[in-house]
């Protein structure tokens, strides 16, 4: 299998500049490029695929520079958002296409296509044409077509964004299962943070033209280094505080920040535990399925706390006016 590395990459257009100092997808890893529209995800993927050349820097597969290799010599499988199936070919022939170009013997093509059909659960539909398939089925064909050539690297650009929520969830866990089964190095592009969290070994969060932070999903979620990463991945509390003697405090709530001066303390609403007490005022609340989101005023700041209803130390009908607050996990932003 293959390790993919990007080193000192620069790609610039008139109104956009992408710079990536270093980014790696390890052998067999599922790496996701996550970021808002226009941040450079597709451009990055297209450079890895070889459809786009970096102005500067190197792209390496297993330590070998592939900058000059055209896409078809990089041994990659690609899946796009819009499936891009051949409308006049059956499911079977769509999947067989890449193998026929390689002029493999007929029986080998048959065997490989059947393997790919089974992998994505489409055995029954091999004689249909794309227009006779649902969006989810079409995307499975696209996935089978990418996998049938047994690529060393699988590249997916927002493959699920044209599908409805239910199918999207089903297909994403299937993509993950197949990726694990085959152990194939995979680089996946999405702007959907939930999808990224669910599917990835590691995530590279991108912001206009650069990578903000790379890490495992929970590491990024609970210990973001920047405000951008914190806010992009979910609801955030960010308190601007002044630390003294290694502690930053507000309204009786203290954080061991191990430094002095200005700090920005970050924590998720679900890291905030409450019990009846004096520290914070419950300003208002919102009920969510099985959960409650409390807006608390502590000092002169507002923070969010989110708890499962069955672990609240009081009933919703009988909310106290004030609570004590404990934050069990926090990080310091740059
Ligand atoms: N061939 C091109 N010529 C000029 N500018 C381009 C070209 N391709 C992309 N860009 C610009 O580069 C920037 C990044 O585009 P890119 O497609 O990589 O973003 P993205 O993160 O994939 O966004 P989205 O989530 O909308 O797909 C955009 O501002 C885009 O307009
Ligand atoms: Mg894109």
Automatic annotation (TrEMBL):
Under Gene3D superfamilies, the record lists: P-loop containing nucleotide triphosphate hydrolases
Q: What is this protein called?
A: Molybdate/tungstate import ATP-binding protein WtpC
Which PROSITE patterns does the record match to this protein?
ABC_TRANSPORTER_1 (PS00211), ABC_TRANSPORTER_2 (PS50893)
The segment(s) forming the ABC transporter domain are 4-233
Q: Give a yes or no for keyword Lipid biosynthesis in this entry.
A: no
Q: Does the keyword Transport apply?
A: yes
From the broadest rank down, the organism's phylogenetic lineage runs: Archaea, Methanobacteriati, Methanobacteriota, Thermococci, Thermococcales
- Where does the UniProt annotation locate this protein? Cell membrane
Q: How does it assemble?
A: The complex is composed of two ATP-binding proteins (WtpC), two transmembrane proteins (WtpB) and a solute-binding protein (WtpA).
User: Catalysed reaction per UniProt?
Assistant: tungstate(in) + ATP + H2O = tungstate(out) + ADP + phosphate + H(+)
Query: EC no.?
Result: 7.3.2.6
**What organism does the record attribute this protein to?**
Thermococcus piezophilus
Q: Name one Pfam family in it.
A: ABC_tran
UniProt-listed SMART domains: AAA (SM00382)
SUPFAM superfamilies to which the protein is assigned, alphabetical: MOP-like, P-loop containing nucleoside triphosphate hydrolases
Membrane topology note: Peripheral membrane protein
Q: Which residues form the signal peptide?
A: none
Keywords associated with the record = ATP-binding, Molybdenum, Nucleotide-binding, Transport
Q: Which GO terms describe its cellular component?
A: plasma membrane; transmembrane transporter complex
Instruction: Provide the family line.
Output: Belongs to the ABC transporter superfamily. Sulfate/tungstate importer (TC 3.A.1.6) family.
One term of GO molecular function: ATP hydrolysis activity
């Amino acid at each position: 299998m293959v390790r993919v590395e990007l080193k000192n990459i620069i790609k610039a257009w008139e109104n956009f500049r992408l710079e990536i100092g270093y980014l790696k997808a390890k052998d067999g890893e599922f790496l996701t490029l996550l970021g808002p529209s226009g941040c450079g995800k597709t451009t990055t993927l297209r450079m890895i695929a070889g459809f786009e050349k970096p102005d500067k820097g190197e792209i390496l597969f297993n330590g070998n520079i592939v900058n000059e290799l055209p896409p078809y010599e990089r041994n990659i499988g690609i899946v796009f958002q819009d499936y891009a199936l051949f409308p006049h070919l059956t499911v079977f022939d769509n999947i067989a296409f890449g193998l026929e170009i390689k002029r493999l013997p007929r029986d080998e093509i048959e065997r490989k296509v059947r393997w790919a059909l089974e992998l994505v659960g489409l055995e029954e539909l091999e004689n249909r044409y794309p227009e006779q398939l649902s969006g989810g089925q079409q995307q499975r064909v696209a996935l089978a077509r990418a996998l049938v050539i047994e690529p060393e690297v699988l590249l997916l650009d927002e493959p699920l964004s044209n599908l409805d929520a239910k199918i999207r969830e089903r297909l994403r866990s299937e993509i993950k299962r197949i990726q694990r089964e085959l152990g194939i190095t995979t680089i996946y592009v999405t702007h959907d943070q939930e999808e990224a969290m669910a599917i990835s070994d590691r995530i590279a969060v991108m912001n206009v033209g650069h990578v903000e932070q790379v890490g495992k999903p929970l590491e990024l979620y609970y210990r973001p280094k920047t405000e951008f990463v914190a806010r992009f991945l979910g609801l955030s509390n960010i308190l601007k505080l002044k630390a003294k003697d290694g502690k930053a405090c507000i309204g009786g709530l203290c954080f061991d920040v191990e430094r002095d001066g200005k700090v920005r303390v970050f924590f998720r609403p679900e890291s905030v535990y409450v019990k009846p007490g004096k520290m914070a005022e419950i300003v208002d609340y919102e009920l969510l399925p099985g959960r409650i989101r409390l807006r608390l005023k502590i000092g002169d700041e507002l923070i969010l706390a989110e708890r499962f209803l069955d672990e609240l130390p009081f009933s919703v009908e009988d909310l106290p006016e004030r609570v004590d607050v404990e934050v069990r996990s926090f990080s310091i932003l740059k």
